[in-house]
Design brief:
Length: 189
């Protein structure tokens, strides 16, 4: 699987075409925020390709020291899910991030699901990440009313939950400026 870093225009096209369908409204940040962080050099988009066709995409946000990166958005294109592309893309993503200490992933907390089907989807998502070699941390996040469990994948080296939580807190501060940050963001570790 080929991995390619995306330009901001390509990211915007993916956002408008796929991301708005792949992620619920309460989990999507305005593209203007993505553009701002990208222009600061701390946000990247990746496309994962086979036979010249994009199969999956990932948007990443780095902390200021570029030590950790948050997997902000990750999806296999609709119609291609369940065919192994997600695991292949995740393996390539981890290879791509070897210049960072590690990769941080938010996954919706099953304890806050809106019904049994939603809980099942959330549990399968966490199981997928664990199958890809990520570990569930004790860090918990809440952003705009959505409760998250936090997973971590070492890339260059390992990090304890406190370092992961502090890095995630820093990334959230960058993504969500005051006063919204104080009102809508919580991290515990």
């Amino acid at each position: 699987m080929e991995i390619r870093e995306l330009k901001i225009g390509e990211m915007e096209q993916i956002y408008d075409t796929y991301l708005v369908k792949d992620f619920p409204k309460d989990e999507r940040k305005p593209f203007g925020t993505i553009r701002r962080i990208y222009e600061e050099g701390l946000y990247r988009g990746l496309g994962f390709y086979e036979t010249g066709q994009m199969k999956a995409y990932a948007f990443l946000c780095d902390d200021i020291q570029r030590e950790f990166c948050l997997l902000d958005y990750y999806a296999v294109l609709d119609g291609l899910r369940g065919k192994g592309f997600g695991q292949k893309a995740m393996a390539r993503l981890r290879e791509f991030c070897t210049d960072r200490t590690g990769l941080i992933i938010e996954s919706e907390n099953p304890a806050f699901a809106k019904g049994e089907e939603d809980r099942s989807v959330r549990e399968r998502r966490i199981a997928f990440y664990e199958k890809c070699g990520l570990r569930l941390t004790q860090v918990r996040g809440m952003a705009f009313g959505v409760e998250y469990k936090i997973l971590y994948a070492p890339c260059k080296s390992t990090a304890d939950d406190e370092r992961v939580g502090k890095a995630l807190s820093q990334i959230y501060r960058m993504l969500v400026p005051e006063p919204a940050h104080s009102k809508y963001i919580r991290i515990s570790f």
